[in-house]
Design a protein that fits this description.
Blueprint lengths: L1 H11 L3 H18 L1 H13 L4 H22 L11 E3 L15 E4 L6 H12 L5 E5 L5 H11 L4 E5 L2 H12 L3 E4 L10 E6 L2 E6 L1 H9 L2 E9 L6 E7 L14 H20 L23 H8 L1
Parallel strand pairs: 1-9, 2-5, 2-8, 3-4, 3-5
Antiparallel strand pairs: 6-7, 8-9
Helix pairs in contact: 1-4, 2-4, 7-10
Amino acid sequence: MAVLLWLLRGLARCPLRLLHALGAGVGWAAYALSRGYRERLNANAALAGVGPADRRAAVAAAGQMSLETPRLWLRPHDAPIADPVRWEGAELIEPLIGSGRGLILLTPHMGSFEVAAQAYAERFGTRQPITVLYRPARQRVLRELQETARARPHLHTAPATLAGVRLLMRALKRGEAVGLLPDQVPPEGMGVRAPFFGREAYTMTLAAKLARQSGADILAIWGERLPRGAGYVMRPLPLPVPLADARTLPADAQAVALADAIAINRSMEQVVRQAPSQYLWGYHRYKQPRPSPVGAAGRLAEEA
């Protein structure tokens, strides 16, 4: 692990243009060396109707994401993002700041999702801090790195545990923002099966439950990775398929959860179609959920 940390710190000092050039090679190496990854990426992309050119670009983009991450994680704690960040659509967020309702930001595995929360915290965090949900790594060293590297001024982290869900709800009750990856496969008992690009995928219910119980506003956001290391563009947008009005839904909680999951998956599909070359098609979106500790899923559902 010491060698890994040394390597990551070395990468963090490299210019973004070099990291993206090297990352494209890393992406193609992973594609060539892992049959399972290659087959999954092609199958998922084909399911969504992604053409050969965008599919090839997505192979390189996955590697670019992996090598830009140390640069985002390992800069000094209070230093700004080292590369240019431009906003298109910030006017959607401005009127929501200070509303007291809280704000939920949904980011798919697309573009530089690591930069999205950091960019939000830098621009809006002094007025509305953000807490992001993350899945802790299994390896202790990587887990500790996640916890320290992702936490920034006005940016807090919450693990995908009962305690983490409580942190998210408290943040929303304070009128703050929270960030989630809605296309991440949740633990068993914390989701429902809903179509995603035409195939049933186990889909989290947490985002919609937080929105319904807190009254928070909800937006989608993603960070476009610009070519040749030119930086990023933050693109917030209204949820393309909004959650249904609660007054029109049945009293059955499971039916509401399914309707919400369908709406969020359709929204994420529309976001991904904006730039399919930057989506992580190799992500194991259709895998079986991992087991939850006994009773944990129920308690998490109740907290949300």
